[in-house]
Specification:
Aspartate Aminotransferase, domain 1, alpha/beta, PyrdxlP-dep_Trfase_major, PyrdxlP-dep_Trfase_small, pyridoxal phosphate binding, five-stranded mixed sheet, 400 residues, seven-stranded mixed sheet, Aspartate Aminotransferase, domain 2, pyridoxal phosphate, binds pyridoxal-5'-phosphate
């Protein structure tokens, strides 16, 4: 299947196609057979051959490729400025495939500490028995990152920025430099920013991972993940080949229906993200003025320590806001359980507002360890609902 996968640099003087045009059209051409404007869901496991190994459109069996999945992969690759994207059944499945594609027993991973709890669990509990070691580091402290690298053994630096749930901002270009000096790859989990606000491959990263369950899908109705790679080589071959092999050979692929839902969501990413972050900025500023709130963590606030860096490497500050309660743990729990519009739930990035208590929900697996998150912290996934309704809900929960 030939689809344009990159919106590469334009020749001097030429306009570069806009993000939303690419989101709507990349990989999403009308069905050549029927003229259907929307590419259909190819709900099939296998494809008829016109002779032995004579394939139509390159498709043989849906674990290897499926037109609906390929269409979504082309769309996401274009938006991340990657050469190839690979869609998986979940974000964790995507991470697992990438790590197993690049790591060998004895290798070491430097892991941004303030990140998705499940990534930490994957590396320290699923991969550790296969002799993969890891060191957590504060992603905003480049000296700590440098000190954690073990030359010749560290093969992957893994970064999440903005981080979860503390919304720290790490310098992707500097991390890339440290990785490449050490002969390692830089992987960036771009789930929080989404390709609309940040393109790590353009900042020097070798691979990007997404939980497409979040902003890419955008409607809390599908689970999915993706790996997007640029031109990086690994172990003497293109990194894309190693990831593609892993996707096919281990088989945790995104199904056609899920790929279709993710692709449909991705078309409106820019519109949703604009509203998410407009609401988030307003809510973060409002929380600053509340006596119940001890600290607001949102990179869009000028007092946030990563504000300038975020302004330089991102195109906006995103829709996630965390805050700490002056009265401590009990107050944080009460707020998390006290909203009505904001649903008490893990996950994020959907059109509806969600509230969570990270210490015991998203980050329960690291409670009691060095990676534990503050017990007075509440995290908001700010939805696209009218901001006045959101403020009213938060006001009620805070003053209860
Ligand atoms: C949710 C999430 C993941 C895991 O993705 P799943 O789709 O739940 O498997 C990874 N990274 C981040 C930042 C996430 O928010």
């Amino acid at each position: 299947m030939t689809t344009t996968t990159t919106a590469g640099p334009a020749p001097t003087g030429a306009r570069v196609q806009g993000f939303t045009t690419t989101a709507v059209h990349a990989g999403q051409a009308p069905d050549p057979l029927t003229g259907a404007v929307i590419p259909p869901v190819h709900q099939t496991s296998t494809f008829v051959q016109d002779g032995i190994n004579v394939l139509r459109g390159g498709h043989e069996y849906s674990r290897g490729s499926n037109p609906t999945r390929s269409a979504f992969e082309a769309q996401l690759a274009a938006l991340e400025h990657g050469e190839r994207a690979f869609a998986f059944a979940s974000g964790i499945a995507a991470e697992d495939a990438l790590l197993r594609a690049v790591l060998r027993p004895g290798d070491h991973v430097v892991l941004g500490a303030d990140g998705y709890g499940g990534t930490n669990r994957l590396i320290t509990r699923v991969l550790a028995p296969w002799q993969i070691a890891s060191t957590p580091v504060d992603g905003t402290d480049l000296d700590a990152v440098r000190a954690a690298v073990r030359p010749g053994t560290t093969r992957v630096l893994w970064l999440e920025t903005p981080s979860n749930p503390l919304l720290g901002i790490a310098d992707v270009a500097s991390w890339a430099e440290l990785a490449h000096e050490a002969g390692a790859l830089l992987v960036v989990d771009n789930t929080f920013a989404s390709p609309y606000l940040q393109n790590p491959l353009l900042l020097g990263a070798d691979a990007v991972v997404h939980s497409t369950t979040k902003y890419v899908g955008g409607h809390s109705d599908v689970l999915g993940g993706a790996v997007v790679v640029g031109a990086a080589q690994w172990l003497g071959a293109p990194l894309a080949e190693a990831v593609g092999f892993q996707q096919f050979a281990a088989g945790a692929v995104a199904g056609p229906q899920d790929s279709w839902l993710a692709a449909r969501g991705l078309k409106t990413l820019s519109l949703r993200m604009e509203r998410h972050q407009q609401n988030a900025q307003r809510i973060a500023e409002w929380l600053l003025g509340r006596p119940e709130v001890a600290q607001v963590l949102y990179p869009g606030l000028p007092e946030h320590p990563g504000h300038d860096l975020a302004a330089a490497q991102m195109r906006g500050f995103g829709g996630m806001v965390s805050f700490r309660l002056a009265a401590g743990e009990a107050a944080a729990r009460a707020v998390a359980e006290g909203t009505r519009l904001y649903a008490l739930s893990v996950s994020l990035g959907g059109v509806e507002s969600l509230i969570c208590y990270p210490s015991e929900m998203t980050h329960a697996t690291v409670r009691g360890t060095a990676l534990a998150v503050p017990v007075d912290l509440v995290r908001l996934s700010v939805g696209i609902e009218d901001v006045e309704d959101q403020l009213e809900d938060l006001e009620r929960a805070l003053s209860a």
